[in-house]
Design a protein that fits this description.
Elements: E1 20-24, H1 29-40, E2 44-49, H2 52-62, E3 65-68, H3 74-83, E4 88-93, H4 108-129, E5 133-144, H5 157-175, E6 179-185, H6 191-194, H7 199-212, H8 221-233, E7 241-244, H9 248-251
Parallel strand pairs: 1-2, 1-4, 2-3, 4-5, 5-6, 6-7
Helix pairs in contact: 1-8, 3-4, 4-5
């Protein structure tokens, strides 16, 4: 009897083996789950954030390196990338959450920040990271789908949401062959999302989504992480926006 073993058809090489992934805002939520999946796919992962202790706790959990700094400080951002010992492949920028306020109650500075926060951060990361990135790597930005609606409650969030897809597309042309893509998420069950609700309000929102979304469940950080890693590994993708909201924009 032939006892030779054959390779299982279900075994595959990790998709990010030998690659380096940087998570700007990687100590919780979508950033941390993307880091976890990237590590499972063989990547060397670097988590960044403002809180050193929270970073260390997250890094210990998944086996990653860390760097604590304020990513909205362009000088600190440049120092971080300049100090990296080697080339990097992928950068995910989670960035700040949306700002909701009545338009007439906002100051001029608040308006500028609401409209420009994600674009300015993405541009600063691009300037500092691109010279260190390998061709075919990707800069991944985060946006949203909820802000596509116009409402009194959303305020300037709709305008801030609308600027991101053309920004990502234009940046993809400038950074080529480094790729640039945008993930547009709806409600994702993260600590950041929870911060917008009371405890009772959060559970009510979850139940509403379980009932109304076509997928009949709430979108989790791991769902977004799976999309992020797919975009990292599919080198034909650039300049595009990828929605992940469980169909929320069609039923809200």
């Amino acid at each position: 009897m032939d006892t030779a073993t054959t390779a299982s058809p279900f075994l595959r090489e990790p998709q990010l083996l030998g690659q380096t992934v940087v998570l700007i805002g990687g100590s919780a939520g979508i950033g941390l789950e993307t880091a976890r999946l990237a590590r499972a796919e063989g990547a060397d992962v670097i988590l960044t954030g403002r809180n050193p202790q929270r970073l260390e706790d997250a890094a210990r959990d998944i086996g990653a390196r860390t760097a604590a700094f304020d990513a909205t400080d362009p000088a600190a951002l440049a120092r971080f990338f300049d100090a990296l010992p080697g080339r990097i492949d992928h950068v995910l920028v989670t960035g700040p959450g949306p700002s909701y306020a009545p338009l007439l109650e906002m100051t001029a500075d608040q308006v500028r920040d609401a409209l420009a926060d994600h674009v300015v951060l993405g541009l600063d990361v691009a300037r500092s990271a691109a010279p260190r990135m390998r061709p075919g790597g990707t800069l991944l930005l985060m946006g949203g789908t909820g802000g596509r609606r116009i409402s009194r409650e959303l305020g300037l969030a709709s305008a801030a949401t609308a600027v991101l897809p053309p920004f990502a597309a234009a940046l993809a042309l400038e950074l080529a062959p480094v790729r640039v893509n945008l993930i547009a998420a709806g409600f994702v069950d993260t600590p950041l999302s929870a911060s917008y609700f009371s405890k009772e309000g959060l559970e009510a929102r979850r139940e509403e989504l379980r009932t109304t979304l076509p997928i009949r469940r709430v979108v989790e950080p791991a769902d977004v992480a799976a999309l992020a890693v797919h975009i990292m590994t599919n080198t034909a993708l650039t300049g595009a926006t990828y929605d992940i909201d469980g169909g929320q924009q069609f039923v809200s």
